C-alpha cells in the first residue's frame, strides 16, 4: 500500500512507500543510470541537497559495507527507487540500505515508477521534488545556495606518503580521489575550501587538486581569483566541480544542462587520439564551449552523446581538468591515467618523483 509520494514542483505526483526517515525532504530531483554502486552514489557529497532517483530497478541487494562509503555521511536529501531490498545478501554487508537511510535520517521512497519519473525529468529538465506522506502544496523553503559550505571539511587532515605532496582543496571530495593519490604514495593534505592562498603556500605543495563538489560553481565566484593564483603557482588538477572552477577562473562560463550526466557509462572522446573512454559521471553543470578562450585552454575531451566539453588543458600552465570522474567509484576505472598524467606534470615541473609514473 502506498504511504508516500514524490510531489514535483511542476505538479506531477509519484506514489510509493516511505523508507528511511519519515520526515520528508525537498531537493532537486536527479537520476543516476548506474547499474551498481548505490552506496558510493548515495554517499558522494556532490549530491548534497539533491534527491537521487536510481534508474536501476532493484537497490540494496548486496547491502551496505564498511569500505565503500565516499564520505562519512550521506548529504543527499533523499533517494527514490523502484524496489528496495530489505534483506541483502553479501559477506561484507553490515546494514541494509533502507536501514542505513533510517539511521542517518535520510528520506526515501521505494516502489516508485522510476521509469516514468525519469522520462518526466528528461522532458522537463531537473526539477524540485518533495518526498512526503500526503499530497500537499509544494512548500516554499529557502535552501542554502552554497552546498560546498555544508560538506567541506573544517579541519586540515594529513595523510603520509613518500611521493609528491598534494594539497586536496575540499569542495566535497570523494574518498576515492584521496585513495587514488595515496595509492600512488603521495603525501596528501586535505584542506577546507576556504583556505587562503597564503595558507596553502605555507604547506609547500608539489601540486593542488581541486575536488568535486555540490551545487552551482558560480556560487563560488569569490573564490575564482584564488583558484587562478593557485593554478599560476602550482601544478593543478580539477575534477568535476574543480574542473568547472578552473575554467571559470580563466574566464570561461558554465551553464546548466537539461538533466545532467549521472551514471557509469558516459562515453568521452580524447580529441588528440580519437580514443573513446567510458567514464563515471555526476554533474548538472558544464563548461560552455563557446566561452572557452583557445589562447588559454585546449579542449582535451568531449562527451560522445551530446558533444559537451569533458576536459581542459591549460596552454601555458601545468593545469588540467576533467568533467568526468577518473577515480570512478562507482563505474569504470578506464580514465585512472588522469592521476598519472597529473603526477607526471608534477615530476616535470618540480622533479618530485611519484610511485605511479
Ligand atoms: N560531481 C561534481 O563535482 C558536480 C559538480 C557540480 N556540482 C555539478 O553538478 O555540475
Automatic annotation (TrEMBL):
UniProt KW keywords: Amino-acid biosynthesis, Arginine biosynthesis, ATP-binding, Glutamine amidotransferase, Ligase, Nucleotide-binding, Pyrimidine biosynthesis
InterPro entries documented for this protein: Anth_synth/Amidotransfase, CarbamoylP_synth_ssu, CarbamoylP_synth_ssu_N, CarbP_synth_ssu_N_sf, Class_I_gatase-like, CPSase_GATase1, GATASE
Chain ranges of the Carbamoyl-phosphate synthase small subunit N-terminal domain: 2-132
CPSase, as annotated region: 1-164
Pathway(s) served: Amino-acid biosynthesis; L-arginine biosynthesis; carbamoyl phosphate from bicarbonate: step 1/1; Pyrimidine metabolism; UMP biosynthesis via de novo pathway; (S)-dihydroorotate from bicarbonate: step 1/3
Enzyme class: ligase
Active site: 240, 325, 327
Binding site for L-glutamine: 46, 213, 215, 241, 244, 282, 285
Pfam families reported in the protein's UniProt record: CPSase_sm_chain, GATase
Reactions the enzyme catalyzes: L-glutamine + H2O = L-glutamate + NH4(+); hydrogencarbonate + L-glutamine + 2 ATP + H2O = carbamoyl phosphate + L-glutamate + 2 ADP + phosphate + 2 H(+)
EC number: 6.3.5.5
Biological role: Small subunit of the glutamine-dependent carbamoyl phosphate synthetase (CPSase). CPSase catalyzes the formation of carbamoyl phosphate from the ammonia moiety of glutamine, carbonate, and phosphate donated by ATP, constituting the first step of 2 biosynthetic pathways, one leading to arginine and/or urea and the other to pyrimidine nucleotides. The small subunit (glutamine amidotransferase) binds and cleaves glutamine to supply the large subunit with the substrate ammonia.
Oligomeric form and interacting partners: Composed of two chains; the small (or glutamine) chain promotes the hydrolysis of glutamine to ammonia, which is used by the large (or ammonia) chain to synthesize carbamoyl phosphate. Tetramer of heterodimers (alpha,beta)4.
Protein family according to the UniProt entry: Belongs to the CarA family.
HAMAP family in the record: CPSase_S_chain
The protein's name in its UniProt record: Carbamoyl phosphate synthase small chain
